[in-house]
Amino acid sequence: MVQPLSSQAIYVVLLRELKRYWRAKARIVSSVAQSFFFLIVFGLGLGRFVGGVSGVSYLTYLAPGIIGMGLLFGSVFSGVSVLFDRQFGFMKEMLVAPVSRTSIILGKILGGAVTASIQGVILLTVSGLMGAFELTPTLILGAFTAVGVMLLITAGLVGLGVAIGSTLNDFHAFQLLSTFVIWPLFMLSGVFFPIDVVPLPLQIAMLCDPMFYGVELLRWCLLGEGTAMLGPFGWVISLGVLFGFMALIVSVATYLFSRVQV
Amino acid sequence: MTEEVPAFNIIEVHALTKVFNHEIRAVDGVTFNVGKGEILGFLGPNGAGKTTTLNMLSTLLKPTSGNATVNGHRIDEEPDEVRRSVGYVFQDPTLDIELTGRENLDFHGRLYHLNRTLRRQRIEEMLDIVQLQERADDLVKTYSGGMKRRLEIARGLLHHPEVLFLDEPTLGLDPQTRRSIWEHIHYLNQEKEVTIILTTHYTEEADYLCGRILIIDFGKIVALDTPQALKAQLKGDVVSLTFESAAMIPRIHPLLEKKNWIRRINAVSNTTNQSSIGNMMHTNQPTAGSPGIRNDPHRTKSATSTVKQTNMTNHPPTAKQLNLLVDDGGHRIPNIVKLADEAAVVLESVELHKPTLDDVFISATGRNLRDQRGSFMDMIRRHRIMRQARGRPTPG
Fold first, then answer.
1. From the CA of B34, how many Å to the nearest CA of chain A?
2. Which residues of B have a CB under 8 Å from any CB of A?
3. Which of A44, A101, A223, B232 has its C-alpha lying 20 to 30 A from B99's C-alpha?
C-alpha cells in the first residue's frame, strides 16, 4: 500500500508524543529513578565485589547498559501506546483524517524515539554525575554520537512496540509482553557481564538480541571500545545490525498498523 | 425542520452492503440520498447498522458491495476527498484527554492541512460556537461529559466539512446537557448550513432534530420520511377512558359504537394498556423486508375507512377501561364526555395518546425499539461476532 507522506501529519503526531511525555512527569521521574537504583546497587554495591571489567570500573562498564535499559523500556511502551490510542478512541480521530496511515505511524515512531532518547540523555547525565565517566573532549564527542545511536536504537524498539500494539486487542497480554519481550531483550543485552565469559548457548542467545548491539554501540561511544569478540570494527557490525533491525521492524510495524480496524 | 425538496444530493448511497465474517449482514443493501442542508436521522436499535453505515460513508470501512458518493466523490475512489468533506463525531469519546481543548482542535486542524492563520481563526470560531473559550486551555480530562461532547462537535466542524456525522450525539448525557447539544446541532444546521446525519435510538431526539428519519433495522431501511409523515401514516390518536366500575362499560359501549368517528374500540385491563394502545395505532404490521410504510399508499386509505372493529372478545370481566381509536382525539374528548353523561356512567379519567415515533417504529418493524431482537442467545451471538469482526485486523 503506497501512500503519500504528509510532513504536517508526521509532525503533529510527533508533537503530541512530546507534549504527552513532557506532561507525564511522574513517568519521567520513576523511569530515571529505576535506572538510578540499578546504577547504585549494581555499580557501587556489586562493583565493590566484582572489581573492574575490561579495564574499567564496574560502574563505568554498567552505565551504557543501564542507559540502554532506559531506552528499551521507554521506547517499547511508547510504541505499545497505539493500543491505548485504539482502546481510548483517539486512534479513530487520526484514522478518519485525510492523511496516510504511514504518516501517522512514522510520526508515532519518531515521537517515541525522541522521547525515549531524551530519557537516555537524562540517564547519561545522571551516570556522568555519579562518576561513571571521566569528562574529556573524547567523551563529549562520544556523548553526542551516543545521542544519534540512541535515536537509531529507539526507532527500532518503538517500531517493535507499535507492531505489538497493533496486533493485541486488549491489555491482558501486557504481562506477557513484559516477561517475554522486554526482560529477555534487557537481560541478554550484555549489561552486567561481557559476552566472552558466558557459555556458548548464552552467547548465541545474546548475539540474537538486537539490544546487545545497541549496548555495544553505546559502549563504543562512551568507553571507546566494545567487546573483543566482535573485533576492532565491532561498531560497524553493531551499526549494521541496528540499521537492519530498524528497517525491518519499521516495515513490519507499518504493515501491521495498516491493517488495524477501528 | 424543512420539508421542501433539497436543491441537490450531497450524499448518494446505492445498495451499500457490509457483511462481517461472511454471515452477519450488518448493512444490507441500503439506498438513500441526503439533500444539502438536511438533518437526516438514522433511527434504530443497537446493532441495526447505523454506525457501520457511517463508517463506510467516512471510508473507515470498505463496503462489501454497493457504492456511495459524498460531496460528489466516490468513497472507493477518492477517500481523501471524502474525508475532507466529512466531519465525524464518533459515538465513543475520541479526544486526547491529556491535551487541552485547544490542542485537540489544533491537532485536528493540522491533520486536515489547515495553515496556521486559518487554524487560529477556526479554533476561535468553533470555541465560540460551542462556548468553550474559557476552558480551552484546560486539559480535557477536567471537562464534564457535555463539554467533551461539545468539544468533539467543534473538532468535527473545524475543517468546515460539507457533512457532519453525529453518532449518538447525546448518548449518556443528562437531559439538560442533551437539550443544549440539540440546540447546538439545530444552530449549526440553520445558521451554518451544515448537512447533518445523526444516529440515535432516542425517538424524541430524532423527532425534535431531524427533517427526515431513516428507520433502519437488521441492516435494512424499513422507512424513510419526515417525522410528521411517518406519524401521519399511523391510524390516529387513542383516547383511553377509565370508568368507575367494570359494570358501566356495557352501558356506554352501544352509544360509542354508533359514532362513525370512532374507528375502533378495545376493552383492556390496566396491566395490558400500553401494548394495547400501540397495537391500535398500527394494525397492519409489515413483515421483515417489506418495502416499508412509505411505499404503501393503500394503508393510509384503508385506515380512514369507516369499518369499525370492536374487540370485546378478550374483555376481562374486571376491566374498566376502554381505548378508542379516533382522528384528532383532542377535539373528540368533549363529545366523549357528553356521551358518558348521556349513558349515566362515571368517568374516572380520560387520557389522550398522540402517535409518537416509537409507535412508528413498532409499526415499521413489528417490535419496540427497546425490545430484544430474536432470542437472547441470538442477540449475544450476533454482538459477539460483530465485535470480533471489528476488532480483528482485515486487509484494507
1. 21
2. 55, 58-61, 79-81, 83-84, 86, 88, 90, 92-99, 103, 107-108, 110-113, 155, 390-396
3. A101
pLDDT 10s digits, B134-173: 999 999 999 998 899 999 999 999 999 999 999 999 888 8
Q: Is A261 on the interface with B (CB under 8 A)?
A: yes
CA distance B388 to B396: 16
pTM above 0.95, yes or no: no
Share of chain B above pLDDT 70, in %: 78
Amino acid at residue number A211: M
Q: Which three cell numbers stand for residue B170?
A: 447525546
How many residues does the structure list for chain A?
262
- For residue B82, the chain A residue with the least C-alpha distance is A98
Compute the nearest-CA separation of A11 from chain B (Å): 9
Give the ipTM of the model, two decimals please.
0.88
Query: A174 CB near a chain B CB, below 8 Å?
Result: no
Please tell me the distance in Å from B333's CA to the nearest CA on chain A: 53
User: Which residue do the cell numbers 454482538 mark?
Assistant: B383
Instruction: Determine, for residues B103 and A92 on separate chains, whether the beta-carbon distance falls below 8 Å.
Output: no
Q: Position of cell 448525557?
A: B173
Q: Which residue has the cell 460528489?
A: B72
Q: Is A27 on the interface with B (CB under 8 A)?
A: no
B349: helix, strand or coil: strand
CB contact under 8 A, B94 and A97: no
Q: What is the mean pLDDT of chain A?
A: 91
Indicate the residue of A19, A20, A98 with minimum beta-carbon distance to B112: A98
Q: A50 and A193 in contact (C-beta within 8 Å)?
A: no
Q: Which of the pair, B199 or A227, is modelled with greater confidence?
A: B199
Give chain B's domains with CATH numbers: 9-231 (3.40.50.300), 235-354 (3.30.70)
Rounded distance between C-alpha atoms, residue B329 and residue B324, angstroms: 9
Which chain A residues are Cβ-neighbours of B110 within 8 angstroms? 8-9, 11-12
Q: Is A256–B111 a contact, with Cβ atoms under 8 angstroms apart?
A: no
Residue A30: which of A63, A68, A73 has the closest Cα? A73
Give the integer Cα–Cα distance in Å for B27 and B371. Answer: 20
In the predicted structure, residue B264 carries a pLDDT above the cut 60: yes
Amino acid (one-letter) located at B25: R
The residue ranking higher by pLDDT, A150 or B4, is A150
**Which residues of chain A make contact with B103, given a CB cutoff of 8 A?**
19
DSSP chain A: ------HHHHHHHHHHHHHHHHH-HHHHHHHHHHHHHHIIIIIIIIHHHH-EETTEEHHHHHHHHHHHHHHHHHHHHHHHHHHHHHHTSHHHHHHTSSS-HHHHHHHHHHHHHHHHHHHHHHHHHHHHHTTSS---HHHHHHHHHHHHHHHHHHHHHHHHHHHHHHH--SGGGHHHHIIIIIHHHHHTT-SSS-GGGS-HHHHHHHHT-HHHHHHHHHHHHHHS---GGG-TTHHHHHHHHHHHHHHHHHHHHHHHHHT---
Neighboring chain B residues of A6 at a CB cutoff of 8 Å: 113
